[in-house]
Amino acid sequence: MSEPRRKARADRALLEHRTRHAGFLSRDTIVAVATATGRSAIAVVRLSGADADPICRQVVQPSRGWPLRPREATRCRIHAPGDEANAIDDGLVTLFPAPRSYTGEAVIEIGTHGGAYVPQAVCAALVEAGARLAAPGEFSARAVLNGKLDLLRAEAIADLIDARSRASHRAALHQLSGALTVRLSTLRESLLDIEAMLAFDIDFPEENDGQLPRGRIDAACAALGAQLDALLATVPAAILGRDGATVVLAGPANAGKSSLLNALVGEARVIVSDSPGTTRDAVEVLLEHDPWPLRLVDTAGLRASTDPVERLGIEMSERYLVHAHAVVACADSAPDLVRTAAVIGALTRAPVVGALTKRDTAGTHEARLALAAFPVVPVSAVRGDGLDDLVARVTAAIAGNMGAAEPGTPMLTRARHRAALATARLELSAFADALKGGTLPATVAATHLRAAGIALDELIGGVDLEEVFARVFSTFCVGK
C-alpha cells in the first residue's frame, strides 16, 4: 500500500474513533425529519445506514414493490411496523444506494405530507423498526467520514442553510464548490516544498554543488506568507457579508433621517413627523445590496436635550456611531451639513457621506458643498432623487475603509478558519525569523513549519482534530 493511501486510511480511522466518542456512532442506521417543522405541503424523512433497506421495508409498501429502482421516486403506503392495516400516510420513497449517496451509505428518503404530526409519526415508526434518531449534523458527519465531503464543504452546507443575504449565499456556494479546499491544499503543498528544501539543506549539503541558497527558502516563505495574508484579508468582507455593514443615519432632529430610511428601503418602517425628537430609539433595517447587505440604522437627532427619554436615545445614537462602518450625515442645508459632519467626526472614525435632504424644497447648494471634505449627495425622499447615488457613495466609502476581496477569492467565513490560518501565519513567520537570525538550529526552526502544517490540516479535517469535529457538527440542524 502506498504511503499516501496508508496515511489516508490512518487519518480516517482516527477520525472515526474520535467521532464515536463525540456521539456519532457510524454503524447505526439513523433517521431524522430533514425539513423544518410546521405547516407545509410536504416533508422529507431521511434514513441512512447499512440497515436502511430492511428497516424501511417494515414501514413502507411501495406501489411497485421491492426492490426499488435507485433515484426514482415511487409512491408508497406508510404504516407502523406490523400494523399494515392502519396507514400513517401516502407518500413517495426514493432509494440512494451506497456509495452514490449524500452520506456514502444506503440512504432512503421518504416524502410525506407536511405538518407537525405526519412526518414525526413516520420517523417514530422507523425508530420502532430499528433506526436511531440522528444527532445534529450526523448525516453530514458521515459524508465526511466516508469521503463524500471534506470538513470545509460540510461547513459550507451549514452556511448555505443559514445564509441571510446574497453575499453570504454567494460565499457559501463558493466554499461548497471546493474553492477554499483547493486553495488550502495549494498552501499545504507550498509548505511541504519548504520543508523538503530545508530537509535537503540539512541532510544533503554536498549534493547539487553545496547547500541550497538560503535566499530560495526565504523567497518561498515570503510567497507563502503573502498567500496566507491574502486569505486572512478576506475576513472583514466575510463578516460584512454575513452581518451586513452598519450604516448610521445621523444628524440634527427633524433633518429627514427617518424619511430617508423609509425611501431607501421602499416602505414606511419609521414614523415620520414634523415634530423634532420623534425618533427616540435606534431603528435597524437590513437592505439587500451587493457586495454586502447594508444595515441601515435610523437614530435620534443629535442635539442637546433635557428630556431624559430623548437623552437616552441620543446616547444610543452615539454608541452606534462608534461601531458604524459608515455614517450618512443628514441635514437640510449646507451649513447644517458641515456642522453635523464635524459633530459626527468627533464621535466616530467611520467614513462620512453627506446627504443634503429635502432637495425638493431646500435646493442643492452644490457650489458650497464642493468645498466639503467628504462626498455629498443631494437627495429627495419624496421624489427618490439621488438615492442610488447615495448608496453607491456609501458602498465605495466602506470598501475604501474596510477593503474588498478580489472576485473569486475564497473567504474565511468562520472563526475556526481565521484562528487556524492566523496560527499558520504566525508559525511561518516564527520559522522565517529564526532561520534569518540564526537563533535556532534549522532542525529546531523546522518545528514551526510542522506546527503551521498541523494548523492547515485541522481546517480540512486532518488527524490533529481534538474536539473540532464534534464542535463543527453540533451547530448543524437535525437531518443534515
CATH topology of the largest domain: Rossmann fold
Spatial order of the strands forming the largest sheet: 3-4-5-6-2-1-7
CATH architecture group name of the largest domain: 3-Layer(aba) Sandwich
Major sheet characteristics: 7 strands, mixed
Low-confidence stretches: 17-22, 269-280, 463-467
Describe what this molecule looks like in 3D.
The protein has about 475 residues and is of the alpha/beta class. The protein has three domains: about 5-150, Probable tRNA modification gtpase trme, domain 1 (Gyrase A, domain 2, 2-Layer Sandwich); about 175-235 and about 410-460, Up-down Bundle (Four Helix Bundle (Hemerythrin (Met), subunit A)); about 245-400, Rossmann fold (3-Layer(aba) Sandwich), CATH 3.40.50. The chain contains 18 helices and 13 strands. The chain has helices at about 5-20, 50-55, 120-130, 140-145, 150-160, 165-175, 180-205, 215-230, 235-245, 255-265, 310-325, 335-345, 360, 365-370, 385-400, 415-435, 440-460, 470-475; strands at about 30-35, 40-50, 60, 75-80, 85-95, 105-115, 130-135, 245-250, 285, 295-300, 325-330, 350-355, 375-380. It has a seven-stranded mixed β-sheet with strand order 3-4-5-6-2-1-7. Strands 9-10-8-11-12-13 form a six-stranded mixed β-sheet, sandwiched between helices. α5 packs antiparallel against α6, α8 packs antiparallel against α16 (about 415-435) and α16 packs antiparallel against α17 (about 440-460). The longest helix is centred in the middle third of the chain and has 25 residues, at about 180-205. The radius of gyration is 30 Å and the shape is flat. The protein starts with a helix and ends in a 7-residue tail after the last helix. Mean pLDDT is about 80; it is low at about 15-20, about 270-280 and about 465.
